[in-house]
Amino acid sequence: MFSWLNGPGRVFREPLPGSTNYLGAYDRSGNLRRLMRDGEEEEQEGKVDLSKLSAEEKAKYNQEKEAKAAEDRNKLPKENAADLRPYPLNNDFRSQSVLSEELRTEIYKKIVDEKVDLATVSALYGVDMRRVAAVVRLKTVENNWVAEGKKLATPYHDAILQMVPQTHFNRKLLEDPKKVFSHESINDLPVHPYTRTQIFYPTSESRQFTRADAAKVFSPTLLPADERIPLSELIDIEKDAVNNMPREQRTARIRERTEKKMRAKAEKELKKQEWEARNVKVVSNQRWNFRFESISVEEAGKDGRGRRGVGWRYGNPHHDREKGEIKLPTSVE
Length: 333
Fold this sequence. Notes:
The protein is mainly alpha-helical. It has three domains: about 1-85, no CATH class; about 100-175; about 200-275, no CATH class. About 45% of the residues lie in helices and about 5% in strands. The protein contains twelve helices and four strands. The chain has helices spanning about 1-5, 35-45, 55-75, 100-115, 120-125, 130-150, 155-165, 170-175, 210-220, 225-230, 235-240, 245-280; strands spanning about 100, 165, 280-285, 290-295. A two-stranded parallel ribbon has the order 1-2. α4 (about 100-115) packs across α6 (about 130-150) and α11 (about 235-240) runs antiparallel to α12 (about 245-280). The radius of gyration is 30 Å and the shape is extended.
């Protein structure tokens, strides 16, 4: 243990400034791998034959080389995938980036101060909508604690951020239309329970079978994949870009779609409030508010599995694995 602490482990006594400090970033001798790679590349690019230089030129060259080495030590290159391995024997695990403090503050300002909706902020910064909502909730709690005079664990927070890779806020990158500001994948399609069953659906080879047709096969009420993704408006934006639509026209269409979506959302919330005012009765107690709502037994459906039925439970099994169930089609319509 002491031989490792005095040898390769000596580099872990103090963390690298502005960088992660994982075991996978060093070799067995304690040398930082990315510094060695950059040094070898620069040595091959700027190799000088010292035998052809005079004594003054040699001294000047060595002085410049030492100054550049000192500058490189203060300015480390960015980590690559190999440097983000906390466990050297596990090549498949990479430490994922977290949101930096300035990016979290910018997201909070967009939502709370500028009243921008979650979907727009998610598409703008490349952050999942669930993470955007979590950032807003946590920043609200933090601001409330600061207003109440509670002490925050700021040293612990800063120390943890120095140990993990971060996604920093870059305003110039947002203003560049050719580049995309992204922290994570934001448009992943969740697996719908209706699509987990085995279905053998016969169709003609000459027919164009689309995603909308596939959704109708699973369930008449299931929407196609293009409409079930979290940010379906990104498809329209990409189509406008592929069709070489001018930037001003694309911006106007984005604004028009956003305003239409906000109006529809406000109307839906208003209808929900009006319906609750007519059908929901609230009885207040000293500790609780009891909500009473009229329920019809017909809402459970013919098979008793209706989503709005009273006593509905999760985990209803599928019948596709039971004996006697015929899965292969017996006729073609």
